[in-house]
Amino acid sequence: MTPSSEAGFSILPADFFHRSAPDVAESIVGLYLLTRRDGSLCGGKVVECEAYLGPDDPASHAACGPTDRNRYMFGPGGVVYVYMIYGLHLCFNVTAGKDNEAGAVLIRSLEPEYGVEKMEERRGVEDLRRLTTGPANLTRALEITLNDNGKKLPENDIFFAGVPGTFNKGVVRTPRIGISKARHLKYRFLDPDSNFISGPAKYAACFE
Questions:
Q1: What is the tens place of the pLDDT at every residue in 122-138?
Q2: Which of 207, 168, 171 is nearest to 191 (CA)?
Q3: Which domains does the chain have, with CATH numbers?
């Protein structure tokens, strides 16, 4: 079962993601990532994400070509790609591009709006600023697991959506963070007015 609308949202169809990862990343800022688990609708507005490409992007999981782990990155777009880092933390991505075109968008931070109490319970914190800021925090808050890996969006229990008339404006591009390769590429996209951005607070030198 896939949703067509939810609480006034317009659910993003799969073909929204059939574009290059940077294009998808830039247009996804200001939209919503939501999960429905055990009857609880949780999530918030995407305020920070990063684009990763294929073999020409040394920082991408796809740089080495298709593997069992990264196979969903090789198309088509609109598929959930969840992976574990440090043997502990999960990161949520959505694939981008046409079939056989590698790409994905890592969701780094949300501005929490829906199911806040449930997300606080899952995270064990009451600090709204920390609730869904950072890739590992938002996956815990939204109860995203490795079982979501490979799901084709939209699904009834996980989907992106937008409120008509409130799509993103003034998105800023900066270099990606937390990587050691291709650090000069401005594939990080964020809402400069949000208080829920991960990482350093000063971005002026990186603004375009």
A1: 999 999 999 999 999 99
A2: 171
A3: 5-206 (3.10.300.10)
